[in-house]
């Protein structure tokens, strides 16, 4: 009751802040925020109602499976929060999603993303605790674990922001820069630390991790775009890109192996990249399907090396020829004796007339 009185005194201020956050957003965003806030108020109104709402709205692994098969809890668990700070975090996340992601995707796509991520996060989290029960045999994991809240969707929003603005710098530290590409893994690590010290429940890091996996798979392979394509096959949106640079090579090997296995058994189709050459900038290099980019780069380096060696050899040939001339042995000169006449005789040309020849002879006799 003290919590309700404190909330009642702060209602005008909270209403002003929420109005500023949710202004110019779609009806779906406002609906999600209102339902989350109302469910929290009803949950905190009485202890009996809180227990009943927690049992009926949250996902309980033992009740989600047959014979109980409470399927509706996979749709309602995301609207239930039992702490006010979690309600504030959920409303801020949904409001920012409406401000940032909804103008790019549209209201329908954002609601599709919201539904897919939350439903699959609830099912996967229940299967995770079922696996722990199979390993330990502890029935508390089936009937005393209640999965609720928007932690899976918060993880999905972090992945979506990473996809839209991967290189946006959030913080500069002495170790390095923190960008949007570091947010999903960093948030999950912090959730684990908060769970270890007792500030969070064990279900919340589980939901956050499942939210990262589900949202990445949907955005990577299945999201439909306005141009008719599906997914996002950018190199900066691979699964290995969520990890530090040191861990990316082994993570890439494992993820590519898993993807290849799914393609082979038919659970996933082979990715074929398409590119519109009409809008291609000049000097763009395109890697065709089936060709490894590293192999192409290696071949290009080999070709450039061979070309540079050939050019260097051609450039060195004139110098080698001149050097061979300098170092070649000098042969002895050949002397040819040419007899010299004492009196030069005029040459008779067949083109000169005979009269000129006789005149010259008479002149020589007179002298």
N-to-C SSE string, H for helix and E for strand = HHHHHHHHHHHEEHHHHH
CA-based shape: globular
Low-confidence stretches: 340-344, 347-367
Count of DSSP-assigned helices = 16
First-to-last CA distance: 157 Å
Over all CA atoms, what is the radius of gyration? 42 Å
- Give the number of domains: 2
What profile does the largest beta sheet have? 2 strands, antiparallel
Q: Specify the CATH class of the largest domain.
A: Mainly Alpha
- What level of helicity do the residues show? 55-70%
At CATH level 2, the architecture of the largest domain is Up-down Bundle
- What is the typical, i.e. mean, pLDDT? 78
Stated plainly, the CATH topology of the largest domain is called Rhomboid-like fold
Beta strand count: 2
Q: What fraction strand? A: under 5%
CATH superfamily of the largest domain, please? Rhomboid-like
Strand order of the largest sheet: 1-2
**Would you tell me the structural class of the helices and strands?**
mainly alpha
Biased composition (Polar residues): 356-367
InterPro entries: Rhomboid-like_sf, TMEM115/Pdh1/Rbl19
Biased composition (Low complexity): 329-355
Transmembrane segments: 21-40, 69-98, 110-131, 143-161, 182-200
